């Protein structure tokens, strides 16, 4: 069964927490049990770890990862023109330091990091099974590394907190060089997490392969667009360790990956867990469905809609198309809405969806909201290997071809033509990543690490929304440090803001 979150509210009321109305690095004690009186037993340690996992679902964290990872790219748009201004800013590249999505992601990341720090520092003193203790600590280290990795990709230099924040004296925290965060926390924590077991007793908890796969992604990101970087070989080798472990495989059908019965399958290396029955359901389906259409799955918000750019990126025979996009939507009155990818609903009866919506995350039976949100899948690992091997070796090897072709064969596509030059293979991998991982919050991160976010977005807007083409400015590779953080953190001044904001 999934990690249990049902008692999270009770657990966290017993712990020292960060006030939602104060600096995210400042904590305020409002419980009747001090932390030193809580971390006494193995059950306490397990409960505290659950609190770290629960942080991934707060606000616009990974329950709404698409707001940054997809909407901040050429794959989706908000579909709102006078609606939520935070989403409109993210979509149109007009984000400012007061943007609620930017602030929420930053603050909740530090709340969750502080929970991880508490586990890492306090659990070692608990008298409990050593293997269980190491497992808990290394899971917390994985999650801390994951969050810092996300922060540095989005904001650049950020405060580095590796000790539990307990009082006002610990609030002042200056921004720290990105390389230092990688070298002192992200990579060491993931190397420690490689000591995790190959499988866990509770579904959804990270494993050895989770750590290796995330470390491969870290190395790819550090390689950036530098053709001579040693990180390419490190990424290739780390991805190969996951592949050679024998613990993971592609599911037979692409559609199967996103079905409720296949949660935490051998293809899923790390997913954010949801459970409507336990009161922690996902809102992804509700947000992605067409607005104002009363389907059997309820009314949608239509706030994250695919662009015509991503629709046209799919080959005509790509099996993934019918899963990635919502082509048919059964209505509550017994009818069906259709989407015609060829033209304006020609050949389909009315009513018709004139543009596609996202179809990956669909549940027809209530209670809905149980689908996990995938962070790392095995298909991603195969594509990371193909990309890294091509860059590290100067040309695509037979093994690199095999990795990308495994992904393409499941999609019903022919193998990549042999004999490609390095750049042609590079472009093939990039295109495959876009289609295979569409709407999983990865697109913006890929564009940034390839060094092409600005060019891609300027071209995208010029073709589809010319009035927005001038919005894309050089500084927008990074998001702004939230204004509230500058106001409340004595270690960060206005002059420390990312340039351009």
From TrEMBL:
Residue ranges of every copy of the SusD-like N-terminal domain listed in the record: 58-220
Pfam family for this entry, one: SusD_RagB
Gene3D superfamilies, alphabetized: 1.25.40.390
Location of this chain's protein in the cell: Cell outer membrane
Predominant place of localization: membrane
UniProt keyword list: Cell outer membrane, Membrane, Signal
Record-stated family: Belongs to the SusD family.
Official protein name in the record: Carbohydrate-binding protein SusD
Top-level taxonomy: Bacteria, Pseudomonadati, Bacteroidota, Cytophagia, Cytophagales
